[in-house]
Known about the structure:
Blueprint: H1 12-22, H2 28-35, E1 42-46, H3 52-58, E2 66-71, H4 74-86, E3 93-97, E4 110-116, H5 125-135, E5 136-147, E6 153-155, H6 160-181, H7 191-197, E7 200-211, H8 223-238, H9 242-250, H10 255-274, H11 276-280, E8 285-297
Parallel strand pairs: 1-2, 1-4, 2-3, 4-5
Antiparallel strand pairs: 5-8, 6-8, 7-8
Helix pairs in contact: 6-9, 6-10, 8-10
Amino acid sequence: MKTMKLKYQWTPESLEKRGKYLWTSELSPMLHQHLRLKQGVIAIDVGCGSGFFTRLMAKGLQQPSKVIGVDINRRLLAAAHEIAKKEKLSSVVEFKQGDAYDLPFPNNFADVVVCHTLLYILGKPLKAINEMVRVANIGGLVAAVEFDYYGRVIYDPIDKDYVELAIRFNDAVIGAFRKLYGADLTIGSKLPSMFLKGGLTDIRAYAYLLPTHPLPWDERYSTRELVAYYKQSIDELTGWSETQKSAMEECGISKREFEEYQSKTVERIKQWIKSPKKMRNHAFISARPVFVVVGQKAS
């Protein structure tokens, strides 16, 4: 009998927080360049969630440009609509409910069709890519933005043992998410081969090593902002369910190691909150590669 996979639940708040600290103002122009976003473009963001990436694509564009976010979740779409309205992007952004396997658009509809951290959680990513190709114009672009957790970089100048724990934790997450959610957290490096199977041409891959969270010594963020961020992160670190913990143990990290990693991380954050100067002087790094892969729909 086939095991039923659990459904991973995103909230608008978690999606917005993730986007804010991943896609800094320095990277936005590069994304626009990779996706060839220019005035008059019609673009689709598949699996848009709260619309962070949709809005990122739309910034700087004017009518008749249009960026359309599509998601199956009505609650996320409602939040996406409200946030776009507050940011005064409603003239170039709209949202539709739709399934990644059956997009609500005709053939050859859009100049750019992109998905951002979507394919990893789908059971049939190639089917979604084929659907994205269908709605792209002849000569139009299809793009995907996905992480690869195998490429993790973790360094701590203070606690070398913590680095080993963090690496084991990261690698167990890969297996646990595959087991529980059917998710492929290593899909980023597989995108070019998938694009070839989807019939795309002129495939180009760009890779960026991005922090997994705002780095404690990064002066782009105020001390107050970092303290607030890390305070909130404690609930996430300690909120693992027993089902998730069991899956982690089955995928390579013992219960003792899991608890040690969790305890060390929480204790470190509490020290940073109590003494922000320690946070600013701790050159800790945790980062993963994200791949931006772009292909062209052939005639």
